[in-house]
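Quick question, first post here. What does this chain look like in 3D?
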Amino acid sequence: MNEQEGWIGDDCSGLSNVITGTLLEDFLKGKEVPLLNRTSDGGNTWNTFALPAPTVFPSNLTSPALDPNVSLYCGIKQMDKISQMAFILQWGCKEADPGVSAKVLYAYLTPDGGQTWHSWLSTGNESFTNPNTGWRLFAPGDGQPNSLQQTTDGGLTWRTIKAVAWQTAQFDFVSEQVGWAIVSDTMSFALIHTVDGGNTWTEIKPVIAP
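> Answer (accepted):
Ran it through. Tokens below.
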């Protein structure tokens, strides 16, 4: 955040062979939380900082068919600075057994340097220009088109801008109106550009100079 204050995230999701995970049953009761390490002296000392436990869970974790004794391994996947005081991180959990469908990804956002946090089930492609305004590609489920969505309250609520044929998207907005994205469908990738906050997009095609 500055020359003295900073954060590092922990990730133990790949250490299922050496550590004990968190039982799914305990995870749903709030017994697993994201852990950060925080310094206020330029990295000379670090203190553990626990974020609030998530309170919303996807259906794949709450299904009665899923064994409550499945072990989850969690960690910080990514951290991105939004402003001098705001940043967003991705925290995900997964099972050690690849044959079990028990995965989840959360976004955690702080607008005030870590004093307060809020979280939501993440799509993994959220992009913010400031602590309030962001975009994401949301997949509602089988048989329904994906949606380009925007938030103006820091991820607490999202509104659909339009249905899109994109299967994946990586966004980079430089203002609340101007942004770029690399998107893909089942056949190809494209670089696209918007100047109206995502309502309309223009494909940018490479041109080879003669």
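Residues 24-28 form the longest helix (5 residues).
The radius of gyration is 19 Å.
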